[in-house]
Specification:
This protein is α/β, with parallel strands linked by helices. Helix content is about 40%, strand content about 15%.
Length: about 250
C-alpha cells in the first residue's frame, strides 16, 4: 500500500485523513485495505490485527488509527487498542485521556470494555495504553493479554492493536502470536530491505500471518500517477515477488 504524507495539526500530531478528507485518495486507499483484509479472511476469519513496523517513525500509529475509522464506517464494531506500553500516542491522536487503559485492565483483571472510550466515529472505541508499566514485554506477552484480546474479539467485530516496532523490542512479536494477522507498515525510502525481511521472518516464526505490507509516506506526484495509487495494496507474497525479494 502507498499513501501520501499525512497533514499535521498545530500540536504536531497527525490529522486523521479519513476524518478530515473522507473523499481523498488516501481515505480510499484505507477503504481498499479494509476490503482486501475482508477477502483475506474468507477461509479463516480475521478478528484481531496487529499494526506494527520494523523500526520507529514509520507511521504505524497513524495507519492503524485511520484504518480503524474506515473499518467502523464500513459497519464493523471496532476496538482500537494502544498496545505500545513504551511510547503510546493513540490517546493524543484521538484527543482522549490516558489515565486508565490497557495496563489498568491487565493489572486489575478488568475487561477492556470497562476502560474503553468512545470516539467521534460511531462504532469505534479506543483503549488507551493507561499508565506505563515497568515491564511492558511481560504484560503484552502474558496469558492475561491473550485472554483480553480473545474476549474483546467476541464483543467487537474487529480488534486492532498498535504495537511497538518489531526489531526494537519483543512486544510486537508477542502480540503477533496472539492475533489473527499483522499489517507491516513501512515508510518509503526509510528502511533497508534486509530489515523488512527480518521483521517478516520474526512474524512468521510465531506462526502469525502477514496480511499485507503498507507503504507509507509516498509522494504521489513524485513517485507515480494518481491511478497507480489504487494499486497500493499487496499481500506479503506479492510485495516480495514484485520487488525481487522472494
Amino acid at each position: 500500500m502507498a499513501q501520501p504524507t499525512q497533514k499535521r495539526h498545530p500540536r504536531h500530531f497527525p490529522v486523521l485523513i479519513t476524518q478530515a478528507e473522507p473523499k481523498s485518495a488516501a481515505s480510499e486507499a484505507y477503504r481498499m485495505l479494509r476490503t482486501n483484509i475482508q477477502f483475506a479472511g474468507l477461509d479463516q476469519p480475521v478478528r484481531s490485527i496487529v499494526f506494527t513496523s520494523a523500526a520507529p517513525g514509520e507511521g504505524k500509529t497513524t495507519s492503524v488509527a485511520n484504518f480503524g475509522v474506515v473499518a467502523a464506517e464500513g459497519g464493523s464494531r471496532v476496538c482500537l487498542i494502544d498496545s505500545d506500553l513504551r511510547r503510546p500516542t493513540l490517546h493524543r491522536v484521538f484527543g482522549v485521556t490516558n489515565t486508565r487503559g490497557l495496563s489498568t485492565a491487565l493489572l486489575h483483571n478488568l475487561p477492556l470494555a470497562d476502560v474503553a472510550q468512545p470516539t467521534r466515529t460511531p462504532s469505534l472505541s479506543i483503549v488507551t495504553s493507561g499508565p506505563l508499566p515497568p515491564n511492558p514485554s511481560e504484560l503484552v506477552g502474558s496469558r492475561r493479554m491473550r485472554e483480553l484480546i480473545a474476549a474483546t474479539a467476541t464483543d467487537f467485530d474487529l480488534v486492532l492493536c498498535d504495537s511497538p516496532p518489531i526489531i526494537s523490542v519483543t512486544d510486537g512479536i508477542a502480540l503477533a502470536a496472539q492475533c489473527d494477522g499483522v499489517v507491516l507498515v513501512i515508510r518509503a525510502g526509510a528502511i533497508a530491505h534486509d530489515a523488512i525481511r527480518r521483521a517478516t521472518e520474526q512474524i512468521e516464526a510465531v506462526k502469525s500471518r502477514v496480511l499485507g505490507v503498507l507503504l507509507n509516506n509516498v509522494d504521489l506526484r513524485r513517485d507515480g500517477h494518481y491511478y497507480q495509487y489504487y494499486r497500493y495494496y499487496r499481500a506479503y507474497q506479492g510485495y516480495y515477488s514484485e520487488n525481487g525479494h522472494g
